[in-house]
Amino acid sequence: MATISTRLMISGTAVTSDPIAVDYSKSNNVSAPAIETGGFDIAAGADVEIYNSPATTPTRTFLYIKNTGAVGQNFVTIVFKGLCEATLTAFTIGRLELGEFLYLPIAPGTIINVASSATGTARVEYGYFSAA
Fold it and tell me: Buried b / exposed e across 75-93, counting CB within 10 Å, b at 16+?
């Protein structure tokens, strides 16, 4: 068993009348199956499955995805596919521009795909860790 730590820090001024200061951190015990880091190119308009958890998986998973493409490469969309009231449903849960990332705890029975924009190849880094 291992531990991963995550931190979300958001700060700034002039966004609202009050300055924003958010700083949260969380450590989680994790185990296999896991992919500590992986990366791949996605052709223009393509859709790649990066995570598929059977509904019988006993635990949730922590997933991160980052658009690591070069300047001039396109955004990627993160697509959730899974059962919603016994119907297979797919919808976009995020759009990552160059350098942006997503960290998401996901439930068993979830499929996550990453799709490149229609006009160019994108490069993605990702990893996932099963909760222990």
Answer: bbbbbbbbeeeeeeeeeee
Q: How far apart are CA 88 and CA 84, in angstroms?
A: 6
CA angle centred on 50, ends 122 and 47, rounded to 5°: 50
Length of the chain, please?
Answer: 132
Q: Average pLDDT, stretch 40-49?
A: 88
pTM: 0.83
Q: Taking the CB of residue 48, how many other CB atoms lie within 10 A of it?
A: 18
What pLDDT digit, counting tens, does each position of 58-116 carry? 788 899 999 998 666 678 888 887 765 566 678 888 999 999 999 999 888 788 889 88
Peptide bond into 33 cis (omega under 30): yes
Give the closest residue to 38 by CA, choosing from 56, 65, 16. Answer: 65
What is the edge-to-edge ordering of all strands in the sheet holding 47-52? 47-52, 110-116, 76-84, 87-96
**CA atoms of 16 and 11, how far apart (whole Å):** 12
Distances in whole angstroms, Cα of residue 23 to Cα of each of 6, 7, 26, 36, 107: 11, 7, 10, 24, 25
